[in-house]
Amino acid sequence: MTYPITHWREATNWQKKIVPNDLQSWFFYPHSMTARMQCVCKTVEIDVLQHHIQIPTYSEMHYLKQPSQHYASLREIIMICDNEPWLFARTIIPLSTLKKTGNQLKNFGNKPIGKILFSNRSTTRSPYQFALINPEHFEFQRTKQATPINCNQLWARRSTFHISGKPLSLTEVFLPAMEQYIKKLTN
Fold first, then answer.
1. d(CA 91, CA 165)
2. For the chain, does the N or the C end have fewer beta carbons within 10 angstroms?
């Protein structure tokens, strides 16, 4: 299936104004989203939907500045806060990154990837890109396959991490329950 191109925007100061004010402090949070969720949720769980080797989309490999049609480790999860799905995340780790980083990124099961990324001193993160996605977009379709959603738009962000100079990408889609919670906090 062919999807329309998602228009990712750089998170410059003027572009950030596109994201609703009440979401901005969460959306552009620079540290571990898991740690942030653990501050407000009684329980945070990771539901691993898939974790295997496959060829990511052309767009994902282009974003990572990797050759298309190359295999990578692909992991999709739902982060659940107090029994409510809050975040869909898709991680792409090129095989060259897996080889360079050894075992730390190979089999982390249902642990949040943030624990690995934010505890490694050699990890750097690119500035965020963000998008408002709708049902025609690949990211929306993957999210909808993972968890029931009843809306026509979702906010998503992505960034590239480098561990020892090798890239991986993390795309996070904010689900309606998370957005509703954040809006309650700010009202």
1. 17
2. N
For the record, the structure tokens of 136 come out as 């025609």
Tokens standing for residue 3: 């999807």
Find all residues with CB under 8 Å of 25, minimum gap 6, and list them: none
Tokens 């001193």 identify what position? 121
> Is residue 176 exposed (0-12), middle (13-18) or buried (19+ Cβ within 10 Å)?
middle
| C-alpha neighbours within 13 Å on the C-beta side of residue 176 | 10
Domains and CATH numbers, the chain: 19-186 (3.40.1410.10)
pLDDT along the chain (187 residues), means of 10: 75 73 84 89 94 92 89 94 95 89 71 81 88 91 90 93 91 92 77
